[in-house]
């Protein structure tokens, strides 16, 4: 861990489907900063950002396929690792 | 599970990763009846070495069933909105008639390139020799077709009510400044498959594409253009897959062989610069063309390239890559780029397929605030001079054709990196001819591959050579008007070009909105 | 008494794009298929010769021997553009998903007669490699063909063939309990078993056909035109009779898909043949040559499936193809 870590980011459309996703990201990434733009939410985080299926399901109370978040995804940055349980964005340095 | 006969009764659940691996397992073609070099003839000539195509990772592992399902969901949403937009005359909800000029720029400058990308990724999908990159490229190929088609369907409504985009692909192949995006994509497509993917997937999609879509779409949202926001963000949901292809391809190529590193660095240098020059059009869109502005070009460049691109290249340092050559020049020029570009279009409004205008007083104040070091000093006086001429009824149209850069094809309008008051000129000699460039970056690109860039179809040269007139035009006729003949070749009709003030678009807009004619004077006051 | 709703007149300046209007002969409302398809590909003022083919322009009509006055004469009878395509496939996919779910939940494949399961493994699973070959061939046409009417249709076909390869893989996974063992065995058989070698050679030979329209004929018209009736049509019927209606559920996608493929492929060939005597002669020669090669390549597979009836079945598949060729205007 270096003192100045690069940000990774995730940008999502603003709508009712992404509301719980954003909430889940905020819960699992206390270091993340959420910026709200017209029609778009951009979430920056130093070094690493994780989106967990389980957290979204806990918020909504229903089963959720992680792959479906692509429908509302606008952009991202960082190395990507996706499984059915979580999506991780990270820089390696 | 030892008893194979019961295996079918109790199958283990497959993870996403395992499912993708199994479904594509062994599908790659290792030909034996035909030599591999004949089946995949393009994988060697660029000097890139691949030892194991299986090492290519597709982090999203999208199988076709999931692809159809999710894409259909996106299309259902998108077309519902397009339908509503059309039924409700949604084009009347934009902030101002001037805004629609960004849509014209988009449909004539970007949508045809979505189709080019569709074709290019089909080429890559066939020419890469491994199943992973083949499938990733093929999915991008069909996605790009989607983008071209959804853009046309969305903008179709604007075309019915506004000028400048009615023959968008015809114009794309002919209009002077549209050769900038056209030559950019054709450059990538005519290169080998590895340079092509480094050019488009990495240098463009991963490093620069955020600068097109994020500001364009945020601006569309802010200016009440719900249709464009919707297709834009819907396209972006595919784009994140494409960006991932970009970063994965770079890592794959770098990891395969250390000899690949210098080749790739050179491609990144070239394609960063080429992409940056292309984005000149975006800079003026952000700073001048959207009536309600979201952020400045400089802010966007800082956020998406300097910060985010910087993070990316720090991550890639471990492979021996560095930031693209001349990136520092782009930071210095961020204070000037959009002004130099908009000034050019103001000058050549007679030959562009949209309606430029002199910035209003509020526009200029916004620029002063965003560019405190440069706007008032270098550019405000020029725009105020234009406005003065307009007041006298002498709107300035430049009728002298400009010299174009042999590489990026933009007129030589950019300033010296260390002096905003001097125009930057570079030149090279090749086979007894002199070639001209707008920058060190463009000159370097030419010098490395002169035999390619001497072929460029430069619109100004072509006009002077008489290649931009409709068949049957007689340039020796007594009343021959070259500009009129070129515009006829472009298939421009009334209102496609010239200033926004007094244009049919402005007249219609005011009528539809029930507004009084304000004209340039009031707008400018 | 009539009520007049007063609104400001907001009349469109035009009904459609100029290039579409030129094709329709007038400025009138156009379909989404037309606006999404017509003239989308650049056709002039190319900048650079391709490093990979300096003899040609980036897009070049001379990449095929077929000559057309208008390359947008080709009309997809399904009128697919991307949106209608994926919506249609999502429906088929939904049905397929339910079918696979049903078979999996009921362990239906486990109850198949042993011989039948073996036949499915031996006959259906290696075909995933043929499908992926068909994917690459349609990809080639999308890469080097001329005009959106062609490249859009072949791009949809390209993704369909990947989808079918993956459905075949899933049948294997249902049989082997997701171990993938059956797919490994099928690949080995595909690479080494004499039954498959002529077909594998045929696909590889098709890979190196340079003329994209010839490849269209060899793959989409001829190979598919014989393979599908041979395998999915007749064999599917036989499987159903032997208690394998389960298999029919798993190959339903392929049956529906093929019925649809025939329509647009025939329409395209017919359009090209109707253009000129030269086209007709060229297409006929290609089809004859490909039909002979393809029949030979399929013979061992026919024998594996139908034993002594193989010849008759092949004749029948050949006759079905002949009928299509004649209907499309070719001389056979």
From TrEMBL, chain A:
- In the record, what terms sit under GO molecular function? monooxygenase activity
The keyword Oxidoreductase belongs to this UniProt entry's keyword annotation: yes
Q: Supply the alphabetized keyword list.
A: Monooxygenase, Oxidoreductase
Superkingdom of the organism of origin = Bacteria
Species annotation: Vineibacter terrae
Question: Record's family?
Answer: Belongs to the TmoD/XamoD family.
What the entry lists under InterPro entries is as follows: MOase_MmoB_DmpM (IPR003454), mOase_MmoB_DmpM_sf (IPR036889)
Q: Does the UniProt entry include the keyword Oxidoreductase?
A: yes
Query: Per its record, how is this protein called by name?
Result: Monooxygenase
TrEMBL record, chain B:
Q: Does the keyword Oxidoreductase apply?
A: yes
**InterPro entries reported in the protein's UniProt record:** Ferritin-like_SF, Phenol_Hydrox, RNR-like, YHS_dom
Official protein name in the record = YHS domain-containing protein
Q: Where is the YHS domain?
A: 415-457
Would the keyword Oxidoreductase be found if you checked this record's keyword annotation? yes
The record's annotation in Pfam families points to: Phenol_Hydrox (PF02332), YHS (PF04945)
Alphabetically sorted, this entry's keywords are:
Monooxygenase, Oxidoreductase
The GO terms this record gives for MF are: monooxygenase activity
Automatic annotation (TrEMBL), chain C:
- Quote any Pfam family the record assigns: Phenol_Hydrox
The residues forming a coiled coil are: none
Q: What is this protein called?
A: Phenol hydroxylase
**Entry keyword annotation includes Transmembrane:** no
Give this protein's Gene Ontology molecular function annotations: oxidoreductase activity, acting on paired donors, with incorporation or reduction of molecular oxygen, NAD(P)H as one donor, and incorporation of one atom of oxygen
CDD domains hit by this protein: AAMH_B
Say which species the protein is native to. Vineibacter terrae
Key word Cell division present: no
Database matches in InterPro entries: Ferritin-like_SF (IPR009078), MP_mOase_hydro (IPR012078), Phenol_Hydrox (IPR003430), RNR-like (IPR012348)
Keywords from the UniProt entry? Monooxygenase, Oxidoreductase
């Amino acid at each position: 861990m270096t003192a100045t870590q690069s940000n990774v980011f995730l940008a999502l459309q603003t709508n009712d489907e992404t509301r719980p996703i954003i909430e889940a990201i905020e819960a699992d990434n206390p270091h993340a900063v959420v910026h709200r733009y017209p029609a778009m939410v951009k979430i920056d985080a130093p070094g690493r950002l994780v989106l967990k299926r389980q957290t979204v399901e806990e918020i909504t109370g229903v089963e959720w396929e992680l792959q479906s978040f692509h429908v509302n995804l606008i952009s991202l940055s960082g190395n990507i690792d996706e499984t059915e349980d979580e999506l991780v964005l990270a820089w390696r340095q | 599970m030892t008893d194979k006969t019961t295996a079918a009764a109790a199958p283990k659940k497959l993870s996403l990763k395992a499912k993708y691996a199994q479904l594509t397992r062994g599908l790659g073609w290792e030909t034996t009846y035909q030599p591999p070099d004949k089946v995949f003839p393009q994988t060697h000539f660029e000097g890139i070495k691949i030892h194991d195509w299986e090492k290519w990772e597709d982090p999203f592992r999208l199988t076709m069933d999931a692809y159809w399902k999710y894409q259909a969901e996106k299309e259902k949403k998108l077309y519902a909105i397009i339908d509503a937009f059309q039924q409700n005359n949604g084009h009347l909800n934009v902030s101002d008639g001037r805004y629609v000029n960004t849509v014209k720029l988009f449909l004539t400058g970007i949508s045809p390139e979505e189709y080019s990308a569709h074709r290019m990724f089909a080429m890559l999908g066939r020419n890469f020799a491994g199943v992973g990159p083949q499938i990733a490229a093929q999915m991008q190929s069909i996605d790009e077709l989607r983008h071209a088609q959804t853009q046309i369907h969305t903008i179709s409504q604007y075309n019915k009510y506004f000028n400048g985009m009615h023959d968008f692909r015809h114009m794309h192949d002919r209009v002077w400044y549209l050769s900038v995006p056209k030559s950019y994509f054709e450059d990538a497509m005519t290169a080998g498959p590895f340079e092509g993917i480094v050019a488009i997937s990495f240098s463009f999609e991963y490093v620069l594409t955020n600068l097109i879509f994020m500001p364009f779409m945020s601006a569309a949202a802010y200016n009440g253009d719900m249709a464009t926001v919707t297709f834009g963000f819907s396209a972006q949901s595919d784009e994140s897959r494409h960006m991932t292809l970009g970063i994965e391809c770079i890592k794959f190529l770098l990891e395969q062989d250390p000899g690949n590193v210098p080749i790739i660095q050179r491609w990144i240098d070239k394609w960063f610069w080429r992409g940056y020059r292309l984005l000149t059009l975006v800079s003026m869109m952000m700073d001048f063309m959207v009536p309600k502005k979201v952020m400045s070009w400089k802010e966007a460049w800082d956020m998406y390239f300097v910060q985010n691109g910087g993070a990316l290249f720090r991550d890639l340092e471990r492979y021996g890559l560095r930031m693209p050559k001349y990136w520092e020049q782009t930071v210095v020029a961020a204070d000037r780029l959009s002004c130099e570009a908009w000034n050019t279009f103001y000058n050549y409004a007679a030959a562009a397929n949209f309606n430029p205008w002199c910035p209003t007083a509020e526009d200029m104040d916004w620029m002063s605030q965003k560019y405190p070091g440069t706007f008032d000093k270098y550019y405000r006086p020029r725009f105020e001079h234009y406005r003065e001429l307009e007041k006298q009824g002498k709107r300035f149209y430049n009728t002298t054709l400009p010299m174009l850069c042999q590489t990026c094809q933009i007129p030589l309008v950019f300033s010296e990196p260390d002096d905003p008051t001097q125009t930057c000129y570079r030149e090279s000699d090749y086979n007894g001819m002199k070639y001209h460039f707008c920058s060190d970056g463009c000159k370097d690109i030419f010098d490395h591959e002169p035999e390619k860039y001497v072929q460029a179809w430069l619109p100004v040269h072509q006009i002077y050579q008489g290649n931009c007139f409709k068949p049957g035009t007689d340039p020796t006729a007594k009343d021959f008007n070259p500009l009129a003949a070129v515009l006829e070749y472009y298939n421009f009709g009334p209102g496609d070009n010239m200033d926004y003030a007094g244009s049919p678009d402005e007249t219609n807009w005011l009528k539809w909105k029930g507004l009084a004619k304000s004209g340039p004077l009031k707008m400018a006051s | 008494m009539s009520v007049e709703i007063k609104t400001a007149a907001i009349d469109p300046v035009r009904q459609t794009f100029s290039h579409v209007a030129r094709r329709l002969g007038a400025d009138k409302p156009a379909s989404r298929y037309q606006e999404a398809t017509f003239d989308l590909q650049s056709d002039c003022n190319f900048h650079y010769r391709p490093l990979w083919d300096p003899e040609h322009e980036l897009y070049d009509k001379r990449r095929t021997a077929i000559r057309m006055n208008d390359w947008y004469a080709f009309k997809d009878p399904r009128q697919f553009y991307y949106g209608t395509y994926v919506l249609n496939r999502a429906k088929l996919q939904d049905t397929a998903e339910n079918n696979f779910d049903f078979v999996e939940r009921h362990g239906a494949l486990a109850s198949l007669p042993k011989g039948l399961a073996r036949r499915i493994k031996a006959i259906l699973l290696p075909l995933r490699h043929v499908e992926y070959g068909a994917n690459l061939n349609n990809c080639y046409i999308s890469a080097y063909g001329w005009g959106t009417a062609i490249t859009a249709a072949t791009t949809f076909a390209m993704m369909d063939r990947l989808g079918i390869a993956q459905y075949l893989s899933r049948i294997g996974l249902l049989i082997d309990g997701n171990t993938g063992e059956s797919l490994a065995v099928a690949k080995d058989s595909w690479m080494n078993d004499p039954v498959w070698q002529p077909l594998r050679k045929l696909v590889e030979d098709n890979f190196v056909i340079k003329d994209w329209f010839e490849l269209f004929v060899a793959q989409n018209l001829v190979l598919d035109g014989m393979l599908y009736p041979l395998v999915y049509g007749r064999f599917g019927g036989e499987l159903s009779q032997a208690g394998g209606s389960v298999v029919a559920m798993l190959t339903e996608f392929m049956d529906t898909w093929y019925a649809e493929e025939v329509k647009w492929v025939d329409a395209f060939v017919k359009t090209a043949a109707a253009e000129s005597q030269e086209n007709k002669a060229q297409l006929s020669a290609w089809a004859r040559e490909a039909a002979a090669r393809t029949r030979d390549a399929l013979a061992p597979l026919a024998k594996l499936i139908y034993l002594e009836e193989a010849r008759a079945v092949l004749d029948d598949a050949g006759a079905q193809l002949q009928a299509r060729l004649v209907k499309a205007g070719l001389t056979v």
